[in-house]
Write a structure and sequence with these properties.
Keywords: Oxidoreductase
Domain Flavodoxin-like fold: 1-183
Number of helices: 7
Helix content: 40-55%
GO molecular function: NAD(P)H dehydrogenase (quinone) activity
Family: Belongs to the NAD(P)H dehydrogenase (quinone) family.
Radius of gyration: 17 Å
Oligomer: single chain
Shape: globular
Organism: Actinospica acidiphila
Largest sheet: 5 strands, parallel
């Protein structure tokens, strides 16, 4: 078992990184690697070189090869991110755009169709939302976000769906309420990964 935690927030003092640190501690003794995309200065811009590699007429850029190797070591991936406009931040979306590409995360051609390639990976989601759970339910925000990521990305690449746990009301003045929401999300994601590690023993 090896878990890769990917966090996308430019502020090292943000709740995103606090949650990542708490989850990393909770996963002990499972092997964990943390990726701070902002600190690592990951470039989310999909370039001409990326496009050529996507269509099989070029090699993957060196920074993408590094991300592929990091993901190939992982049995579990946890995406930890603030919800921006009912979706993920551009930094994380660009990481997915550039890393989860044709030929590596899946293969697609007009003749053979789609062949997913990430069956060995389980992907968990830990979105950090400013709104409350009631608003997300009333407006369908949680369902929309889960459909976009779980179905549109995770399922498409053949990865197994892991746990999804929202931290709600992350911008409320009550630090105790936020702490309870964080603890719940960490418990859900950590519990799912620990349960998987026990089945693999």
């Amino acid at each position: 078992m090896h878990t890769l935690l990917v966090a996308a927030n430019p502020d090292p003092r943000s709740l995103t990184h606090h949650v990542r640190e708490k989850l990393e501690a909770a996963l002990h003794p499972v092997s964990v690697e943390a990726a701070d995309l902002a600190k690592e200065r990951f470039d989310p811009a999909f370039t001409l070189a990326d496009r050529r590699a996507y269509h099989g007429s070029g090699t993957y850029p060196a920074d993408i090869v590094r991300e592929h190797r990091r993901l190939e070591r992982a049995t579990d991936l946890v995406l930890i991110f603030p919800v921006y406009w009912w979706s993920m931040p551009a930094l994380l979306k660009g990481w997915i755009d550039r890393v989860f590409v044709n030929g590596w995360a899946f293969e697609h051609s007009p003749s053979s169709g789609l062949r997913p390639k990430l069956q060995a990976l389980t992907t968990h989601l830990l979105p950090i939302a400013g709104g409350d759970s009631g608003a997300y339910e009333r407006h369908g925000y949680e369902e929309a976000l889960r459909t976009q990521i779980e179905h549109g990305i995770v399922d498409y690449c053949g990865s197994r769906r892991g746990a999804t746990a929202f931290v709600y009301e992350s911008e409320q003045p009550s630090s105790e309420a936020t702490a309870r929401s964080v603890d719940r999300a960490v418990r859900i994601i950590g519990g799912a990964i620990h349960a998987r590690s026990r089945t693999l023993l």
